[in-house]
Amino acid sequence: QVQLVESGGGLVQAGGSLRLSCEASGSILSIATMGWYRRAPGKQRELVAIIRSGVSTNYADSVKGRFTISRDNAKNTVYLQMNSLRPEDTAVYYCYALISISRGSNNYWGQGTQVTVSS
């Protein structure tokens, strides 16, 4: 069984920073892609950033230059450093990982962590 546990959300003023963390645990053979998605009130879930098993990354245009994704493979953990936060960044942020276990590869999701940016 695999679990993704997020931490680091909260309330911050516009222009502030937060750092999200997500640790994967369980019977993991390897982790290919890790990333973050978010769902704002009344909107569909959208990709924020992903990082592959190497160093390649992709970001949503709306967060480029403000957010940085990174990972610690030894800890099976992915991070999202969020700077210059804006009220429109308010959302529930979900961690994602494509993980190989003994029976194959599956997509896994965290429970979500709330990020609220006040103006």
Task: Please describe what this structure looks like.
The protein is an all-beta fold and 119 residues long. It has strands spanning 2-7, 10-13, 18-26, 30-39, 46-51, 57-59, 67-72, 77-82, 91-101, 104-109, 113-118. The termini are far apart. The mean pLDDT is 96.
What is the average per-residue confidence, as pLDDT, rounded to a whole number?
A: 96
Q: Largest sheet, described in full?
A: 7 strands, mixed
Number of helices: 0
Please report the total strand number as a whole number.
Answer: 11
**Gyration radius, in Å:** 14 Å
Q: What proportion strand? A: over 45%
User: How does the overall form come out from the CA principal axes?
Assistant: elongated
Give the topology, please.
Blueprint: E1 2-7, E2 10-13, E3 18-26, E4 30-39, E5 46-51, E6 57-59, E7 67-72, E8 77-82, E9 91-101, E10 104-109, E11 113-118
Parallel strand pairs: 2-11
Antiparallel strand pairs: 1-3, 3-8, 4-5, 4-9, 5-6, 7-8, 9-10, 9-11
